[in-house]
Amino acid sequence: MKQRLLLSCILLLAANALAAQTTLQDTIPETVVTATGTEHLLKDAPVQTEVVTRRMLDSYGGRSLEDILSGLTASFAFNEDDMGSQMQLGGLGNSYILILIDGKRIHGDVGGENDLALIDPQTIEKIEIVKGASSALYGSDAIAGVVNIITRKHRQEGLLVENSTRYGSYNDIRQHNSVGIKSGRWTSLTNFNYQHSDGWQNTSVEHTSSSEPPVTDSRNMTVNRHTNAQIAEQLTFAAGDNLELYLGGTWYGKRIYRPSGKYAHYDVHTYDLQYRNASASAGGKWKVNATDVVTFDLDWNRHAYMYYFTATTLVEDYELSKGTLYYPYYPYLPDQTQMQSDQRRTMASVKGIFHLPAGNLLSAGAEYRYDWLYSPTRVEGNIVSDWTAAVYAQDEWSHDFDASHSMHLAAGTRLTWNGAFGVKLTPKASAMLALGLPWRIRLNWSQGFKTPTPKELHYRYIRQMSGTYLYLGNQSLRPQTSNYFSLGGEYNRAGLNITLTGYYNMVKDMITLVTIPNYEAPAEYIIQYDPYRVRQYANIDDARTMGIDLNARYTTGEWSFGLGYSYLDTDANQYDSDHDRMKKVTIDGTAHHRGNCFTSWNHRFSPGYRLGAGLYGRVSSTRYYQIDGNGKGYQIWRIATNHDFDFIPSTDCRLEAGVDNIFNYVDRTPHGLHLGTTTPGTTVYVALTLRFKSGKKIGKFYNTINNNINSNQNEQN
Predict the structure, then answer these.
(1) Domains in the chain, start-ordered, CATH in brackets?
(2) Angle at 662 between CA 656 and CA 666, to 5 degrees
């Protein structure tokens, strides 16, 4: 009888704690930091910010960041391949989108693409998306927008142990483990992540030119088999009431297994792709007083990309440092590697946030960045480097006219010095006007820039394809720049939030490869085989993108509904190398219409069990390309369920299961042409997460129970 009473008390306390937590999560207003670099309530942020919350992440159960963003927002497009995620936002590709993790830029360049597998979905607390140029705050690359991944932290005194295992179709394995320890002034959080997929093939047909017979037995995969693993450690020390210091580091490895080359009968791949990333960081946060803060950070990152040979292979080996552009074949044996590029970046930054009189908030900082590239096969001299230094400042001013009318203004600029192009000034200005409940409007103008990469400045290599191509860097490149304008309105009342934003983005001096006719190589270079075509990076293209984004969310009781729609129109003045002239084109990958919708339901059936279920849909119209055909439009629907079991105090148990692409849509466009989506058709998944948390309060709770039990036993004796 006493044991039943004790169990009932435990279940009641667990249910009350969970109910209180759910109430707090539902009632605490969402805060954001990405738009201005300072903390604001989402409704008061002067720049429109789209948020993917923890609640949305838990309900959706996404397998990757690409899966999450394409399923829960309407603005992104992805086409995963060996070279990365092929992400696009607002008509512009991955190299124009800045990816941040807790405000720090991700490091990794695979053919111009970041490897988003570096981000483990299990570690994400929420995602903040700011569209348009944000270079005044974040520097280079923030032309199309900024995606800031806010990770989960361990703040509770005691021990946290978490294990999450997910298994899906095509042997898709996602393993996550965390160990967090907080004791006094010290906090440690260790994360391990493992991912594997056998890949899949949607078609065995290979596209060929009209003069060649069709290939129907291609071994090319739509998505290749791949494996990657990552371990990360963050150690934090509270040196005093006002000073916090940290040390962190990560190691990441990935291998992509390739079965064949372009055709099944020849050009077979004899090497896989291998990547090795590492990072180290240190810094701290100093609370100057109750309102003002200074942060300082030092970061080092490495991204290495190499060929891993699986059979004896004769490879054209280059020794550019010796003034030779082409050497005879050199044999590589199985298990040997050939380094393609080793990119390293060191960044130092300091930033202060100060509250000034008259409602002003000043943010100011300085940064230094050093880029180092080693590429023995593609860079003259094997090693090149570049540096960038910057100072920036932003002032925010807020004023409440009355309870329902207010204004928030933000203006700032960044002054950048770069070793390649000199000095650049990048300003921004934005405003949020509360016109009376429930209406708000936002206006934004900002400039963006993107510095030439060391590859674009210094690359010099030969590539054998259908002919011999010589690729040249250009040390006279200018930075790519942009002007971004947006106007948006928001309605927010009684659980309903609707935002409508129109934008216009002009990008100038875009860098592209241009064919150089009648190229004559310098006398000091030896070219054993004359190149069929010579191409060099140049500032030649301009582009204009414009569109409308609509987002609507409604929550009532146990139900949530969402709808997103994105209209996009693009126009670029692009260099036509075949005819040596400029022409107007639609930017590759543009889809005029994209949308997503969802409905989710959560219900607690008992103190120990809660069920969540959701239906999610995403749709895209045709994606346009200049060559190799357009990508087909599609619509994909997904069912996701989650089951929370809360029978044991301090231990959370969650079971997730779902079906993606329930109508089994597959794009069977032949290899070599563009796909609308790479989905393999209907897939299923199941995931189990166990989380144990033990702290001082939990310890006191158990001590009280034990004391009561001992007391009862003594009374009986």
Answers:
(1) 2-716 (2.40.170.20)
(2) 125
